[in-house]
Each structure stands twice: as structure tokens, then as C-alpha cells.
From TrEMBL:
Protein name: Dephospho-CoA kinase
Compartments, as annotated in UniProt: Cytoplasm
Record's function text: Catalyzes the phosphorylation of the 3'-hydroxyl group of dephosphocoenzyme A to form coenzyme A.
Entry keyword annotation includes Iron: no
Enzyme class: transferase
Listed pathway(s): Cofactor biosynthesis; coenzyme A biosynthesis; CoA from (R)-pantothenate: step 5/5
Record Pfam families: CoaE
Binding site for ATP: 11-16
Catalytic reactions of this protein: 3'-dephospho-CoA + ATP = ADP + CoA + H(+)
Organism encoding this protein: Microbacterium limosum
Gene that produces this protein: coaE
Amino acid sequence: MPLIALTGGIASGKSTIARRLTEHGAVVVDADALVREVQTPPSHVLDLIAAEFGAGIVGPDGALDREALGRAVFGDPDALARLNEIVHPAVRELSARRFAEAFARDPRAVVVYDVPLFVEARVDGPWDLVVVAHAPAAVRRDRLVSERGMTAEDAARRIAAQAPDAARLAVADVVVDTAGSLSHTIEQVDELWRRVRS
């Protein structure tokens, strides 16, 4: 019953790896989806965020205005740290429940936690393997501009707001090089799956 942490910087190809592992039969728990879940009203987490950053981050429908929150925290390390102090404990608790549920359904399951902010929030977890999707920052910046329509400045700011590549690579048991072709990435993921299943 391996529990694998999958991380990587923004636009590093992490989702491609997670999709391929799902095709092999892994149970993927998506940290971003859990973040959205703990912030969905009615939500104690959302109440704490609004108290910290102001009622302007809640839209007329009572839901979190993600763009407003992004403007409030990106580029401001102190604000981002305050947000993480609110969100990370709730996500840790919910993710632990999801892991337990997956193993209760199938004790032989391979559970993969797709977690962008692993170094920032989860490095001390019960991981059997830490997998890092890695492409140089310049490659990821170009992807954000060409595939997600960001300006180069916004892309650079998003990358800078995350842990540096060296910090992720330092905790990796396996590095999947995602800078090349899609087929090269898939080959590495298939090899990872064989390793995990053997």
C-alpha cells in the first residue's frame, strides 16, 4: 500500500504524470481539489480567510473570489504565509482522511498525492516515495505564457512564489524529467509504475 507524494513547480507536467498513473490504476488525491473543497461555503476556512484578508475576497454569491485572493497574496511572501497557515492544516486533515478511505477500499492500492506545495507544506508526511516533476523555470514560464495565456511577468511571479527547484529536488526519491517530449515523460512514468508495483 504505497503512499506517493507527487510534486513539481507550476507548469512542470505534474498533471500529465498524475493522469498516466491514474491510467495504470493509481488512486490520485489532488491537493488543489482539496483546497477548493475546504474553501467552499459554508466553510470555517473561508471565514478565517475573509477575516484575515477582508470581505472583498468573498464574492456576492458567498464563494471565494480566487482572483481577488491571488492579487492579495502573490508577490507578498508574508500574506502568502498567512494564507498557508490557514489552509494547510485543513488540507492535511482532509487528505489524511482520503488516503485512509482509499486504503480501506483496497489495501493494495497505490495512492498518489498530487501536491504542488509539498516542500512548503507536506515534506514530513508518511511518504513511501517522493516523485518530483522537473522542468527548468524558463521552460515552465514559457508554458504558462503559451498554454495558459499568462503574461511573462505574471508567470515569473507565480514561479517565484513557489519553493525553488533546488528545494524540491533535494527531497526527491525519483525525478521525472518533463522538459522533453510527452513520450519521454510517459516512458519515465511507466518505469516508475513498474518500480512501485514490483
